[in-house]
Amino acid sequence: MRQFSQLVGISNPYLSQIERGLREPSERVLESIATALRTTSDALYEQAGIGEDEPELDGPSVPDAIRADPHLNAAERRALLAVYQAFVEGRGPRTRRRRAPVPVPPADA
Known about the structure:
It is built from six helices and no strands. The protein has helices spanning 2-8, 12-19, 27-36, 41-48, 62-68, 74-89.
């Protein structure tokens, strides 16, 4: 356990808390664990049974809610429906990407 926590870059007590379900690891920590185990974070989630069977929500569907929103005009509705459809159709194994660093403007700018 100590060797693995050093390999992952977290403390042994923190790893123990994750193992016992007392703490939920951050995305960065989960990525480090997955890398150390030579797998993906998605595979770890799948093995843990997280996110497999999403419960059905009561109420209107997302497209129905977009169509019914009086604050949107026709062009906005079409755009939102297109984006939503792209997300839904693009489902599959998700890969988590690291965010690119945000450029910081010079202090005298």
